[in-house]
Amino acid sequence: MRLKITSLLLFFLSCSILSNAQVWYPEGVFTQNSPELIKVDNFVITISKIEKDTSYSYWKVCVNDGKSWLNLPVLKLNGKAEVFDMRIYQGMVHVAGRFEFEDGKFNALVRYNGFNWQGVSEFKNNSNNSAAILCLNQEDKDLIIGGNFYTIGNDTLPYLGRYNSGKFNTYFKNCISCQPNNSITQLASNDSVIAISGQFTEINNQKSKFLVRLVKHQIKDTFLSTPFIIENIALEGDVIYVSGGAARNKKIFKVTDVFTELRNNLDTAFQIGEIVTWENQLVLSGSLKLSSENEMNGIFNYNNGKWTNLSNNYSNVRHIASGRSILVASGTPKNTLSIWNPNRFVVRFYPNLALVKAKVFLDSNNNCIQESNEKPVPIYTSTVHK
Question: How far apart are CA 356 and CA 166, in angstroms?
Fold first, then answer.
């Protein structure tokens, strides 16, 4: 007996193999609630709020190890907990935000040590109240921490600090004037560059700073001359990309020694969720109106001086993340992307593939005709190259 595929081929995604095939494909069998946050840090990491009662909130952190999804033990935080960032550091998943852990004994930063969740320290602002960590990154062997804290444990470390081997240190060593005078809300770093933004009005003895770049541990400042709230930062080598601005009128800039707005075929950016760099391209999630098109909510990339919609078969996107060659997204789309894989929440982008759905049956007499006694088999779904 042979499996015969009928001549009728139905393509998902309303794209054909002859066109620019691309697909967002379910990433494993992650079936938790839609993630509150998704990150790529060698592994894909998600966190979802799964339950809440009058006193506590309960969170599920899932890690994809490249082969399967691992569900870590439930993380129990206070009822009003918020999570802002995640990172794998020294082999442990670190979760940061505005929350209390172990009934207030620890706050703002917890880690999974391979057995259970544990608090790292106590973060307070300059009014001695609990503070939040708003962003994490890694530089060299240190975990870089930014937020609205002023002290960590017994140490005074305003707004930006380093963490390694259980110890916290100031980021700007031997340079008190380099420290910001208010909270750090975003940071990104690589081997040679760190870019930070926040609500500070003075840093490195200069006022009205909206972006600071540190190149090989030497201060180099690049900033706008007019107030601008930077909501997102991404790096590609020594080039910084930022987005932000007023409600329903967002702007995207490429930053070298100056700010260059990336408009070209972009009419209006009504909303920008997140920005990342992937395959030497800038990618964002949000609601844009491109030239001669209607407003669209989805995923867009900037390549060869032009904005392009990458959303294709995946709609209602909440988050995007990237790492190395990986580009992933999460959201709550209405349509099922795969019959055999129930996951709709976390998907990975494949730029040169399309999905094909075909009817198949057991051809018992090998005549290539489906007869009344020849039953269909479960739908076969495969990827095909362009």
Answer: 51
- Local confidence band at 6 (pLDDT 50, 70, 90 cut-offs): very low
Average pLDDT over residues 374-385: 56
Kindly tell me if the per-residue pLDDT of 9 is higher than 50: no
User: CA 130 to CA 128: how far, in whole Å?
Assistant: 7
**Chain centroid to CA 335:** 22
pLDDT at 4 over 60: no
Distance separating alpha carbons of residues 13 and 335, to the nearest angstrom: 10
> Which of 48-57, 192-201, 362-371 is modeled with the greatest confidence?
48-57
Query: Hey, what are 23's tokens?
Result: 């697909």
Residues 6+ apart with CB under 8 A from 267: 288, 289, 290, 291
Phi, psi of 12 (to 5 degrees): -65, 165
- Which residue is listed with tokens 């990336």? 262
Q: How many residues does the chain have?
A: 386
Judge if pTM exceeds 0.90.
Answer: no
- 312 three-class SS: coil
**Tokens 């190149």 correspond to what residue?**
215
CA dihedral 322, 323, 327, 332 (to 10 degrees): -50
> 71-78: long-range contacts (C-beta < 8 A, 24 or more apart)?
71/32, 72/112, 72/117, 73/112, 73/116, 73/117, 74/50, 75/47, 75/110, 75/112, 75/117, 76/101, 76/117, 77/101, 78/103, 78/104
150: left (phi over 0), alpha (psi -120 to 50) or beta: alpha
- Sign for the CA dihedral angle at 261, 262, 268, 272 comes to negative
Cα–Cα dist 386/383, whole Å: 10
Give the pLDDT of residue 357: 61
pLDDT of residue 270: 96
Cα dihedral 173/98/115/103 (nearest 10): 120
Query: Is pLDDT at 146 greater than 90 in this prediction?
Result: yes
